[in-house]
Amino acid sequence: EEPIYLKISHEFDKFWQQAGEHTVTTLPKLDVSSILKSNPMTCYKFFRNKIVEITKDEISEVDYEERVDNLVWADEVIDKDWNYVGPEIQEKCMYGDFLAKAINGDHNYVRMIIGFLCNGYKTDSESYLIALMEPMDASLGGGTGKGFFVKILRFWHPILITNGLAVKKDIDQLIQNWNGEKVVHLSDLPKWVNLGDLKHVVSDDSQRKLLYKDIQNILVEDMPKFVLSGQHGLDTVSDGGVKGRIRQLAFSGYFGRLGNTIRDEYGGDCPAVWDTPERCEAMGWAEGSSNDWDGYYSYIADCVKLYLGVRKIDIVEDLGLWLKEWDTRF
Q: Rounded to 5 degrees, what are φ and ψ at 153?
């Protein structure tokens, strides 16, 4: 009879739920030392065909068979094949072309910023706040590529994009909503924001309270790197701690929501238009080429290598003068 069947099913499900919880407690703990992960000297990236090891001296490829004693998190494997290409393709691929057009200034400095954001390890001395700055009045519509600059990095490692209003509310709540992403982008920062509130989450270990669980301690090496953007000026001078941490990228205004958009420039949404037959024909590449994707991954790998060589981002003085003009706007 149905009532008896439902009762038996209910008891059976309850038994397996309790048995499963008990079984989990009897399993041996995972030896985390066997997990292959980035460290202060080496950034590891995992592709379908290769493990890529990036140091300050070289970018090397390793077969998975050579690392049989190590474990790799399945969700860290990029669903692409690794194929390094040199500077010529890196600059011609859509990613390199976008960076050249969208951002002002020394592109060695731009590469250093990208290398910092894409290196898979963080130390307390690398407590930079990356500020993406508009070159134009907010009334002109924005769309200079700040959001795309961060969003496109999600194909390298996980990105969390959240509203910059969090800075004016409760910074610690930010960590409660964070789920291990390597970069947190605080977009659309409001006026009168106090960047000093960010100093401790940028530089130090942190904690978060998991639902129905104990407080989790998060080491600085596992904490995210922070990117800021908005339509308004930032006070980068009043707080010495902020002044020492802030590193800014000045966007050129080549792209704009009321003018030439990124979609207009490349004939569609990126990366959907990367390596299409039309794109390969226009560039004179062989049909079926993956130069846009290979250029993207190779560009970032070279940026990480460059950054690991110094592990420091110097303040660019000419951008400092430009920022002073922005400071008057808020």
A: -70, -10
